Amino acid sequence: MSRYLGIDLGGSTIKWTVLENSAFTPVETEETPGDKKAILSSLSGIIEREERLRGAMTAVCIGTPGLVDGKGRIRGDAVNLPGWGNQSPGGSFGTLGDRSPIVKNDGSLATLAEARLGAARDRRNVVGIFIGTGIGGGLIIDGNIYEGTAHLAGEVGHVVVEPGGAPCPCGKRGCVERYSSGTGMVRLAQEEADRIDSPLAEFLRKKNSEIIANGQEAREFSAERMYQDFYPTDELARTVHEISVDRLARLVGALINILAPEKLVLGGGVMKSADPILRSLKKKLPQYAVQEISKGCHIVPASLGSGAGAIGAALYASSITD
C-alpha cells in the first residue's frame, strides 16, 4: 500500500499529513524549534512516529522556506529560519527504503494543493501568495509547478516593491515581505506608533522597550490581532493596512501583468483577516495591473487553511513516485 508523508516546515510551526488510499489524515502541528539541530530532530521524529503508526512511507516530501534547487539544497539563507540555509536537509534523515526525503519550496507546494484541491481547483494557470511570518508563493503553469532555471522560481516575497525601502534580511531593501507579511505589519506599526495617537499606538509605545529588548512583542502583538482588535476604527491600524495592501498590490499587479493567471490565491495566517485585505487589494489593483489582463484573473482566498503546505507536499510526493 502506498503512503505519502507531507511535511510543511514553517517559521512558527511544523505541520504534516499522510496521503493514503486517496485520503489525507488530519493535519497535525507542533512548534518549530529554534535552531537547525532541533529542527532536524523534530522532522526525523515526525517521520519515525508516522512510520511506526502507519507503516513504511513510499515517499516523504518536506516543504521548507528558502530557495530550494532541483537537488533539494537550500541556496543561501532561509530568511525566516536562521541557520537553516545552505544545506541539503533531505540528506540529514538517512534513507526511506531506497529514497531520501524530497525537499521543495513550501510556497510552491501550498500553491499546488490549492490548484489541485482548493480555491483554484481545476485551473491550470495559478499564482499563490501565502502571507504569514514571511511571504511565500508558487506558480502553477499548465497544471504543474513552474520551477524555472535550477528549480528556483516563485520567490515572490523578495520582489522589491519599495526601491530603497526597509532593509530585508535577504540583503535587499524594499522587499514586499518587509511591508505585507505578518512581521512586516508589526514592524510598520512599531515605526508609525511614534507619530500617530491611537489606542494601538499607545499600546505599542508602552511595549516598545520590551520589543527592542527581547522580541517578545512579536508574539504578544500580531497582524492578526491588529485586524481583530483594532481595525478599522484605529488610525494606526488603518495606516498599517493601507501601506501593507498598497505594497502587496504592486506585487500582485506585476504577477498578473506577466503571467495572466486564471486565479490568484491568497493564503497564510494573516489571511484569516482576508475580507478587508481582499477588498482593499481589489480597489488598489487598477493602479498596478493592466485592465485587459487583470479582468481575466480572479483573486480568491485560499480554502485549505494552514494545512495547504503539508497537503501539497504529500500530493507532490505521490505525483512523482506513482
Q: Would you give an account of this structure?
A:
By secondary structure, the protein is of the alpha/beta class. It folds into 2 domains: 3-112 and 306-321, ATPase, nucleotide binding domain (Nucleotidyltransferase, domain 5, 2-Layer Sandwich), CATH 3.30.420; 122-302, 2-Layer Sandwich (Nucleotidyltransferase, domain 5), CATH 3.30.420. 39% of the residues lie in helices and 18% in strands. The protein contains 11 helices and 13 strands. Strands 1, 2, 3, 4, 5 and 8 form a 6-stranded mixed β-sheet that branches. It has a 5-stranded mixed β-sheet with strand order 11-10-9-12-13, sandwiched between helices. A hairpin with a 2-residue loop joins strand 2 (13-20) and strand 3 (23-24). It is globular and about 60 Å long.
